[in-house]
Design goal:
alpha/beta; Rossmann fold; Quinone Oxidoreductase, Chain A, domain 1; single chain; 29% helix
C-alpha cells in the first residue's frame, strides 16, 4: 500500500509499505479521511519523534477485514477510529485523568513501524485495546464528519473542566478550528461567548457558531490596537469580569491577559501550550488571594465518545463548516504545510482518499 512515511524533521516521503497484518482481535480499516492535527505537525516539523513513523490519528474509513475473534464489527461498516483508549483501572484512570494512563499513552492504531496513528496511509490496523473507541458512522454522515470526532472530543473534555453556569461570560482566544469548536460547544451550553482572533473571516464564522461578541486582535507590533482589543474585552466582560477564558492559541501574553480579565474565582484554561519547557510570569496572588484557577486540558476522554458522536452526527456542531481544504494522500506534506501556516480562507485541513 501507499503511505506517507516520516523520515525525520520536515521529511515526509510517499512510500510503498506492507499492508498491516491483523490478529484475531483486530480490525483492518481502509482509510477514507484523516485530519491534520497540530500535535502531529509539531512532531513532524521539529523532529521530536524518532523516525520512521506513519502519522495521522483523526481517522475514518471502512472496515475491510475483521479478526477471527471479533464479533462486534463486520467488514463493510463505515467507522471513525479513536487511537487512545485508557485501561480504566490504573491510578490515573481512577482519578479520571485518562491522558496520564500508561495504556492511553500507547497508540492503538498503526499503518506500520512504531504505532503513530497511521492515517496517512491507505490501510490501518486497529489493535484490541483500541476497539472500544471505534464508532460507526451513520449513513447520512460523511467520512469527514467521522474524522472530526477525535478533535471534538478533546474540546468537549476541556469544556467539561470549566465550572460554569448558564449565562456566564467566557472568552475564547483564537478562532481556528479548535477555537471555533469551543465557541460552538459553549454557546450550546448557554454561555455568552466573547471570541477573539486576528482574521475577520474567522470572527464571522464565530458569530455564526454562537459568539455573542467578537473582537479582532492585532499583531504584537501594533500595541495600541492590541491594547484597545483588551479594553474591548474588559468592556464586554462588564464589572464582574469574565467567568472563564479559554486560551486556544500558544501565546503566553494571552494567558497573562486572560488571568487579568477573569473575575475572582474564575478560570483560565490553557489548551494550546503543548511544548515542554515554556515558562511565563504570573501574579501568584491572583491565583491564591483571588482564587483564580489556571488549568490545562490535553487530549480526549474516551467516556465522552457517545456524546461527541451525538453532537457531530446530529450536526448541532456542524463540523462540515470547519473543513476548508482536502488533499490527496500524495500531497500530505502540502496539507501539513497549510495547516501549520493557515491562509485567510483555511481552517481544518484533511487528507482524503476517495
Amino acid at each position: 500500500m501507499r503511505a506517507v512515511v516520516y523520515r525525520g524533521a520536515n521529511d515526509l516521503r510517499l512510500e510503498t509499505v506492507p499492508v498491516p497484518r491483523i490478529g484475531p482481535h483486530e480490525l483492518l480499516v481502509k482509510v477514507a479521511a484523516c485530519g491534520v492535527c497540530p500535535t502531529d505537525i509539531k512532531k513532524i516539523q521539529h523532529g521530536t519523534a524518532a523516525p520512521p513513523r506513519i502519522f495521522g490519528h483523526e481517522t475514518a474509513g471502512v472496515i475491510v477485514r475483521t479478526g477471527s475473534r471479533v464479533r462486534k464489527f463486520k467488514a463493510g461498516e463505515r467507522v471513525a477510529l479513536h487511537h487512545h483508549v485508557p485501561c480504566q483501572e490504573c491510578h490515573a484512570c481512577r482519578h479520571h485523568a485518562f491522558a496520564q494512563c500508561e495504556q492511553y499513552k500507547r497508540t492503538g492504531i498503526t499503518a506500520g513501524f512504531e504505532p503513530a496513528g497511521g492515517g496517512y496511509a491507505e490501510f490501518v490496523r486497529v489493535m484490541p485495546f483500541a476497539l472500544p473507541g471505534v464508532v460507526r458512522i451513520p449513513t447520512r454522515n460523511s467520512f469527514l464528519e467521522g474524522a472530526m470526532l477525535e478533535p471534538v472530543n478533546t474540546v468537549l473534555k476541556a469544556v467539561k473542566r470549566l465550572a460554569l453556569l448558564r449565562g456566564d461570560t467566557v472568552l475564547v482566544a483564537g478562532q481556528g478550528p479548535i477555537g471555533l469548536m469551543f465557541t460552538r460547544l459553549l454557546a450550546l451550553r448557554g454561555m455568552n461567548v466573547l471570541a477573539t482572533d486576528r482574521m475577520p473571516s474567522r470572527l464571522k464564522l464565530a458569530r455564526e457558531f454562537g459568539a455573542t461578541e467578537t473582537i479582532q486582535v492585532r499583531s504584537p507590533a501594533r500595541q495600541s490596537k492590541a491594547a484597545s482589543a483588551q479594553s474591548a474585552a474588559r468592556k464586554a466582560a462588564g464589572v464582574r469580569g469574565l467567568d472563564a477564558a479559554v486560551v486556544a492559541v500558544p501565546s503566553d501574553e494571552v494567558v497573562r491577559d486572560a488571568l487579568g480579565l477573569v473575575r475572582g474565582g474564575g478560570q483560565v484554561l490553557i489548551f494550546a501550550h503543548t511544548r515542554r519547557g515554556a515558562e511565563t510570569a504570573v501574579d501568584l496572588a491572583g491565583i491564591c488571594v483571588d482564587e483564580k484557577d489556571l488549568i490545562g486540558s490535553y487530549s480526549s476522554d474516551f467516556l465522552l465518545q457517545a456524546e461527541v458522536a451525538s453532537l457531530v452526527f446530529s450536526r448541532r456542531l456542524d463540523v462540515r463548516r470547519l473543513v476548508t481544504h482536502e488533499f490527496p494522500l500524495d500531497q500530505t506534506a502540502a496539507a501539513i504545510a497549510l495547516a501549520a501556516k493557515p491562509s485567510t480562507d483555511s481552517l481544518k485541513v484533511m487528507v482524503s482518499q476517495g
